[in-house]
């Protein structure tokens, strides 16, 4: 019984919807009453070139719109679109100035079956700014990666001029252009679109680039890793005791036509004048790059480390003798507390040598009462050689300690 009631209610609801639809269709198509509505329509700005002669330019004129109040039959107003109207604002008809200007809007065309009720009161606010021109660099940004073993070089593009409102043009730092080089293995002829960009890479509106596109060739060349050959006269002219000049980075990537770079295994440096090297730890020298060869991700210079042949020198030192493994049963006396030694090593090592870097000691673990001859143990740092030593052993006199009048066993 409950199911029949529910089915009955559903049928009633469906009938109500159908009745409403029929009534709406009747009113809309038969009665078709007059109605008034609003529509937002864009406004075209005319004669911008005339204000440019006064070094002025509109700001954001592309976004100008007005709201029209239109009247017509329900069917006509329902189907109306903004593109059915043509509205213009003519800058040549009024005296304009820098800053905000209120310019009337004229209806050039509109549908004949509707009436604009507010066409006598249509205005737009147009802001004018000083016209500015400047040249900026072009930055080409590559998307993706070339085929393995190849490298795409940024084409050389001259600076381009941008024009527009002063505030907007001053924000422009460069013209950006993006292009995909994915899987490229040969030169690319590209047509790139130029976009005025600020320092953060954000596109700046209202700025004109003419032309807005540019045809360029993107060179894509084969890559090869080669060594660096240092050219100098070390063997012939070496008054500064230079051992060698070694590149800090001994490999470099080059690119070029495959038949050219296949015969190149190293790049020479320019000849190095050793008179300009003395006293330096590192130097920077130019590479000799053959014609048709380009350096990849690198400048045309390399840094070299200057290694010297340090001559050996000697140094006299007086060392304090330390005792180790003292026996608590004995009191000891050394016949000397000093030892003099002569050491040898490379000049820079010897000059930095300190007495505290050397250990000199005698081991008392095996002494007996009376006189003992204990050998000296001198421990030197790496790179230091002992030349001579004035004594090799120390005479140590040991006596048993006495506690409350008794010998200590």
UniProtKB/TrEMBL annotation:
Keywords linked to the UniProt accession: Membrane, Transmembrane, Transmembrane helix
Originating organism: Clostridium drakei
Transmembrane segments: 10-28
Tree of life domain: Bacteria
Keyword Transmembrane: yes
Pfam family name, one: YbbR
Name this protein carries in UniProt: Membrane associated protein
Keyword DNA repair listed: no
InterPro entries, per the entry: c-di-AMP_regulator, YbbR
């Amino acid at each position: 019984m409950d199911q029949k009631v529910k089915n009955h209610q559903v049928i009633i609801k469906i009938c109500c919807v159908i009745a409403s639809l029929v009534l709406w269709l009747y009113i809309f198509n038969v009665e078709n009453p007059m109605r008034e509505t609003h529509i937002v329509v864009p406004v075209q700005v005319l004669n911008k070139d005339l204000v440019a002669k006064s070094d002025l330019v509109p700001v954001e004129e592309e976004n100008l719109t007005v709201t029209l109040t239109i009247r017509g039959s329900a069917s006509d107003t329902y189907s109306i679109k903004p593109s059915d109207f043509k509205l213009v604002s003519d800058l040549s008809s009024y005296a304009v100035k820098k800053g905000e200007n209120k310019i009337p809007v004229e209806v050039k065309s509109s549908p004949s079956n509707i009436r604009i009720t507010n066409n006598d009161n249509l205005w737009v606010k147009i802001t004018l700014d000083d016209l500015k021109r400047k040249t900026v660099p072009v930055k080409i940004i590559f998307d993706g990666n070339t085929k393995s073993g190849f490298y795409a070089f940024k084409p050389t593009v001259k600076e381009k001029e941008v024009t527009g409102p002063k505030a907007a043009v001053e924000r422009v730092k460069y013209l950006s252009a993006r292009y995909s080089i994915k899987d490229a293995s040969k030169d690319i002829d590209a047509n790139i679109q130029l976009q005025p960009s600020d320092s953060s890479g954000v596109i700046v509106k209202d700025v004109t680039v003419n032309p807005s596109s540019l045809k360029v060739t993107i060179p894509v060349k084969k890559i090869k890793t080669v060594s660096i050959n240092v050219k100098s006269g070390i063997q012939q002219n070496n008054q500064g005791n230079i051992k060698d000049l070694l590149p800090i980075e001994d490999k470099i990537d080059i690119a070029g036509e495959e038949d050219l770079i296949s015969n190149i295994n190293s790049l020479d440096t320019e000849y190095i004048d050793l008179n300009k090297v003395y006293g330096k730890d590192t130097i920077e020298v130019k590479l000799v790059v053959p014609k048709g060869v380009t350096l990849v991700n690198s400048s045309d210079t390399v840094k070299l480390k200057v290694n010297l042949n340090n001559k050996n020198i000697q140094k006299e030192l007086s060392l304090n003798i330390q005792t180790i493994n003292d026996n608590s049963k004995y009191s000891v006396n050394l016949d000397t507390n000093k030892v003099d030694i002569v050491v040898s090593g490379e000049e820079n090592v010897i000059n930095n040598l300190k007495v505290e870097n050397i250990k000199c000691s005698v081991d008392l673990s095996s002494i007996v009462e009376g006189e003992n001859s204990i050998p000296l143990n001198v421990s030197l740092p790496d790179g230091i050689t002992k030349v001579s030593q004035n004594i090799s052993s120390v005479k140590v006199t040991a006596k048993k300690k006495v506690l409350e009048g008794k010998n200590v066993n």
